[in-house]
Amino acid sequence: MRKVIHIDMDCFFAAIEMRDNPKLRNLPVAIGGSSEGRGVLCTANYEARKFGVRSAMPTAHALKLCPQLVLIKPNSSKYKEASHQIKNIFARYTDKIEPLSLDEAYLDVTGSELFHGSAQLLAEKIRNEIFMETGLTASAGVSCNKFLAKVASDWNKPNGMFVVTPNDVAKFVSQLPVEKIPGVGRVTTERLHQLGIKNCHDLQQVPLAFLNMQFGSFGKVLYDRSRGFDNREVESLRLRKSLSVETTFSKDKNLEELILELPSLEEEFTYRLEKLKLRGEFKIKQLFIKLKFSDFKIVTCEQRKHEDFLIPLNTNQIIDSTIHNFLKDMIVDSFGKSDLKVRLMGVGARFFTEKEAPSGQLDFLKLLAG
Ligand code: TTP
Ligand code: MG
What is the pLDDT of residues 341-353, one digit of tens each? Predict the structure, then answer.
C-alpha cells in the first residue's frame, strides 16, 4: 500500500504578489497580460474568482466581469524562487518527488517513519513549513495513490487538506463527478453526460469493452479511476531515464515510406518532451530509433556519442533539420538491406542522470521548473 501526498499551492502567482504587497490582500487580483495585447490571465486570487474570473481567460473578458480587477504582469523569477523553496522543503521528507508544475507535486512517503508513519501529520507539517518559510499557503491531498491524492488536494482548497483512507475509497469515488477525474476535459465530460454517465458510480456500471470502444486507450483509465484504482508510481526526475514514442502502422512500410513517417513521430516526440520540460530539466544523452519488422524482429540503432551533433542552445524547436537528418540516417542503418517491411517504428532519447550531466554544452533544455 502506497502513501501519496499531493501538494498544490493556492492561487500561486497571485498569492506571491499579495504576500509582497499587502495592500492587495482584500482586492480582486489577477496575473496576466494586458487587455490591449489580447492578453490572457495566468491566474486570479480567490476574491477575483467570486466574480467568475479564471485562469486562461482573456484579460478583456475578465475586466468585464470584474471592472475593479487589479491586473499584475507576471514576475516569473519570483515564482521560480518560491517553487525552489517548496521543492527544498519536500526534499527534507522524501526523495520520491514528482513535480507537475511550478506549484504542484506528488510525494511518495510510503517509507517514512516520521509521526509513526502518519502521512496526514506529515502533510500538515509540510504545509506548515511552506507557510513559515515562504508566507504562502498550500493545500494537500493524502491517499493511497496519485489519482486520489490529487482529487483530495482540491477538496478543501484554499489552505486546506483532505485525506482519503483505504476504507473511504469506495464511498469517496462513487459520488465523484466524472469531470473531477484528471484528464477528463470538457469534451469527454460532454460525451459521458450524453451517455447518461454523471459520476463514478455511473461509470462503474459500464463494461470496459464499451469504454475502450468509445474512448480508446483512455477507456481503461476511466474504468480504473472510477473504482479508485491507480497504480502509477510517483516518478521522481531521477527515475526518468528515457522518453520514446512509437507507432504501429496499419500497413507495413518499406524504407522510403518509413522516412515519410518520421516527421509525425518527431512531432509527437517534441510534444511529449515539452510536457516533460514543465517538470524539470532533461539533458539528452543519446537518441535512438527502433524498428520492428514484419517477422517481429526488433532492430534498434543508437547514437554512439553525444558529441555526434550539438543541439542549438535555447531553441524551442527541438528537432531541427540536423537532428532530422541524423534520425533519418539511423533509420537507414537499422533497415539495412532487409527484404522485409516494417510494422512499427519508434523514436526515443535517453537522458543524462543528474550525476552524469555535462555542464553547458547540452543545456538546451533550460527549463521553466528547473
Ligand atoms: P494552478 O495550480 O492550476 O492554479 P493556482 O495555483 O493559481 O490556483 P489554485 O488555488 O486553484 O491551485 O496553477 C499554478 C500556477 O500556474 C498559477 O498560479 C499560474 C500558472 N498558470 C498559468 O500560467 N496558466 C494557466 O493556464 C494555469 C492553469 C496556471
Ligand atoms: Mg495551485
Answer: 999 999 998 887 6
**Residue 44 Cα, ligand 1 centroid: separation in angstroms?**
8
**Which residue is closest in CA terms to ligand 1's atom 23?**
42
pLDDT of residue 176 exceeding 90, the answer is yes
Atom of ligand 1 nearest to the CA of 14: 18
| C-alpha 181 – ligand 2 centre gap (Å) | 17
Closest atom of ligand 1 to 158 CA is 10
Please name every residue paired with 286 in a beta bridge, in sequence order, or none if there are none.
Answer: 350
Quote the CA–CA distance of 29 and 68 in Å, as a whole number: 9
- Ligand index nearest the alpha carbon of residue 10: 1
- CA distance linking residue 149 with residue 10, whole number of Å: 16
| Atom 15 of ligand 1, nearest CA residue | 12
Task: List the grid coordinates of 286.
Answer: 543519446
**Residues near 130 by beta carbon (within 8 Å), at least 6 away in sequence:** 7, 9, 85, 86, 89, 136, 137, 138
Q: Are strands 97-101 and 70-72 parallel, antiparallel or unpaired?
A: unpaired
Taking only the tens place, the pLDDT of each residue in 248-265 is 898 999 999 999 999 999
- Closest Cα to atom 24 of ligand 1: 42
Lay out the sheet containing 70-72: strands in order across. 41-44, 29-32, 70-72
Q: 208: Cβ–Cβ under 8 A, 6 or more apart, which residues? A: 219, 220, 223
Question: Taking the complete model, does pTM exceed 0.85, yes or no?
Answer: no
Separation between Cα atoms, residue 15 and residue 355, nearest integer Å: 35
* pLDDT (tens digit per residue) in 181-205: 999 999 999 999 999 999 999 999 9
The whole-number average pLDDT for the span 106-110 is 97
In single-letter form, the type of residue at position 93 comes to Y
Ligand 1 first shell, C-beta below 6 A: 8-13, 42-43, 55-56, 101, 103-104, 157-158
The DSSP H or E segment spanning 240 is none
Q: Are 41 and 30 in contact (CB under 8 A)?
A: yes
Q: Which ranges constitute the DSSP H helices of the chain? A: 12-20, 46-49, 59-65, 76-91, 119-134, 146-153, 169-174, 186-194, 200-204, 208-215, 218-226, 255-277, 321-335
